[in-house]
Amino acid sequence: MPILRINMRTRTATTEPTPLAWQTLGGRGLVARILLDRVPATADPLGPRNVLIFAPGLLAGHRLSSVDRISVGGKSPLTHGVKEANAGGRTGWAIARLGYHAILVEDQPDDGSWWVVHASPDRVTFEPADPWLGLGTYEAAERLLDHYGASSQTALALIGPAGERGLRAAGVAHIDQDGVPSRMAARGGLGAVMGSKGLKALVFEPAGRAPLPLADPQTFRQARKTYLRALLDHPQTKIYETYGTAAMVQMCNRLGGLPTRNFSQGQFEHAERISGEALRQHILQRDGQGATAHACMAGCSIRCSNIVPDPQGKPLVSPLEYETIALMGSNLGIDDLDAIARLNAYANDLGLDTIDLGAALGVAAEAGLWRFGQANRALALVQQIYDDTPLGRLLGHGAAQTGRVLGVRRTPAVKGQAISAYDPRAIKGTGVTYATSPQGADHTAGLTIRARVDHLDPTVQGPVSRKAQILMAGYDTLGVCIFAAFGFARAPETIPQLLRGRYGWEVPEDVLERLGLETIRLERAFNRAAGFTRAHDRIPEWMTQEPLPPHNSVFDVPDEVLDSLWADV
């Protein structure tokens, strides 16, 4: 499978053979390899030398349940290091089906022009993006799909006004199986990188392409069957189908790790009002187009997504995830699911990461710009991002920048990226992940909440985090959703079998761990070249000093544990 290179300055698209060192990597691992090989580590993230990468996972393109994710990558304008953000939707499947191992978007226009790139089986074309500039992702996606006469196989990756303006918390939106731009590669500011390329949208049309070849169809299909059975038999699959990721609200609240009022508390007195159970009833009680279970991509058997309706029963947002409920709900002192869903919809339309925006709003409340719990005021602040006011632009740059400008010490960020919805003082293994992951504060890089340990014990967290980080880096390289891991954990032999069936590779049984470790090695190499040191692998100092109610715990995992976690990598 070749590499597609898109040069935004010359408006040319060329293909080249995939280098040997890239062929056995996909997704997140391939992002890291390409950055090391093609991007100077000291490059300006929003300058012409950075490369925006779209890399399907190694197993994408076959409609395996929850295994068609896309990794979007580049040097992050938030962390100034390696960044990969992955998403569901159609993009990963479509790029793989078009026959590309990865797509590299390079350089930037020297005339300030904006473009839409359309890739079909026989050609790649450039069209001026003027008709869609300034539009939110919802309207822009609808108009783009109408313009290109899209089919049910068409994929679309685009940015909203936040990405166009270079706001550092901007993400890249992808359409789901319903054509809604609801799947966000949100973290790390990659939407701003896409905007720096003068690229409003990429349209992928794989219709007419034959299915991807299998080196050993029988092995692949048997492994697929075994994996799917293991996934469906896992009890967590049913829980996520019933409650979605919002099931985590009550669990984190019980553990005392639910971000509340700008991470000043670990429990929210109204957690039950925004819980997965409450959200399910909220959707069911409104006749209309809501859904408690929804697949973000074709072929997904978990269906952990949802569609939240407005009071008239019309779709308001999809999905409303735990991280958004926490960062835009309890973190802001808001207990109204309608208000949280509307904040989510605004963020999606702007093309912003709900985690970094929610954290920035919490910092703004800490600074006295509004009072916690005032949902209408929070919505008005997000409206300022639409209106492109100075305060709106500041919030759109995320929590770290907002904290610096407003002089707020209690700013929840690591390596410039906002901490997600698991307070590291109560769930300390995930705190180790925040500190030591090359990705910055990202729970998807190694969430430890299901580990059978005392989450408050600082002495046991290093190995727990390391194992979680390696596994997740491996899954991200394969293109596997975090929840598909339930099936692979029960049938781990299916991963090497699927790779053998797809590519004919003779891979070891521990290939997942090897892919994960190699990915982290590559990412750390890039970050070192970019100037990262041990000092970057730290939780904010205030979290090591300020006790978190109700356990009154601080983040006290020793620095020696953080410094030695990747000593062999």
Overall residue-averaged pLDDT value: 96
What can be said about the biggest beta sheet?
6 strands, mixed
- By CATH, the superfamily of the domain at 3-204 comes out as Aldehyde ferredoxin oxidoreductase, N-terminal domain
Number of helices: 21
- Could you name the CATH topology of the domain at 3-204? Aldehyde Ferredoxin Oxidoreductase,  A, domain 1
Please explain how this structure is put together.
There is one protein chain. This protein has helices at residues 27-38, 91-98, 137-147, 161-164, 190-196, 217-233, 235-243, 248-255, 276-284, 322-328, 337-350, 354-366, 375-387, 390-396, 399-406, 428-436, 461-478, 485-490, 494-503, 511-529, 559-564; strands at 3-7, 12-16, 52-56, 70-75, 82-87, 102-106, 115-119, 124-128, 155-158, 172-174, 183-185, 199-204, 291-294, 305-309, 315-317, 413-414, 417-418. The strands form four sheets. Strands 2-1-6-3-4-5 form a six-stranded mixed β-sheet, sandwiched between helices. A six-stranded mixed β-sheet has the order 8-7-12-9-10-11. The two termini are 29 Å apart. Helices cover 38% and strands 13% of the residues. The longest helix is centred in the last third of the chain and has 19 residues, at 511-529. With 569 residues, it is an alpha+beta fold. The model has no long low-confidence stretch (mean pLDDT 96). Helix 6 (217-233) packs antiparallel against helix 19 (494-503). The chain has 21 helices and 17 strands. It has a domain at 3-204: Aldehyde ferredoxin oxidoreductase, N-terminal domain (Aldehyde Ferredoxin Oxidoreductase,  A, domain 1, 4-Layer Sandwich).
